[in-house]
Amino acid sequence: MNRFQEKVAVITGGGAGIGRALCEELANRGAIVIVADIHEGNARNVAAAIKQNGGKADHRAVDVSGEQEVKRLIEDTVSNYGRIDYMFNNAGIAIGGDVRDLTFEQWEKVMGINFNGVLYGSIYAYQVMAKQGFGHIINTASATGLMPQPGNTPYCASKHAVMGLSLSLRHEGLDLGVKVSTVCPGHVQTNIYKNMTVANVKNEKLVASLPVKAMDTQKAVATILNGVLKNQDIIIFPANVKWAWRINRLFPRLLDKAWVEKIRNIRDLREKG
């Protein structure tokens, strides 16, 4: 039995990366996909490719940091399709560097998209799903929502906030038929680091310093959807992230050296920049 068949799924950040791969795989599994992205052209292209491949899709230009835009996305979906079965709050950005070099405008931009965008999508979808008596909200956090990430502190703070929101909402939704899962990926083959702003560090230097091996996007999406079908509270991948998380929980001091080395690496790039 295909549990995604004819289900209405909204995906923010659906124009690229994990979001795009989610849209494509959900459509392949028979879902009706709403591709939402701040870049309308990207959203339109993803939806068009899905329809050309025989799937069902629509697209919306949405800046998730704007409450009213997210509200309209939810309202329009319900108006057009009668319900929402899955809400994937996936859109996100990263702005990093030494905290001394970051502006409050940069902090606000990260929190506006990574946390407020998830908050708006969660709450408006939750209200609809509570009335329906069913639905599943899937919020993209990160491995950095489980552990520190010096050198990427605004992103880390936003993802910790997503974790708190999602885990609390999961328990609130239990008696109302609303499920909530949180996705915590490690390094996946997307352009998030390529597009990342790092204060006082050239982006190409940062990218060159990253681990070479990253999880295949399709494999990541398969892991996410498998976790959704199992109604997992936290969907963590790949395996090395799971182990790091477990070690950090049981023996937090063991990873102190790794966290310090991360910010030293950023500072080394900064000072040589």
TrEMBL record:
One of its GO terms (molecular function) is oxidoreductase activity. Residues 7-188 form the Ketoreductase domain. Gene3D superfamilies: NAD(P)-binding Rossmann-like Domain. Pfam families: adh_short. SUPFAM superfamilies: NAD(P)-binding Rossmann-fold domains. One of its GO terms (biological process) is bile acid metabolic process. It comes from the Bacteria. Keywords: Oxidoreductase. Belongs to the short-chain dehydrogenases/reductases (SDR) family. This is NAD(P)-dependent oxidoreductase. It comes from Paenibacillus flagellatus.
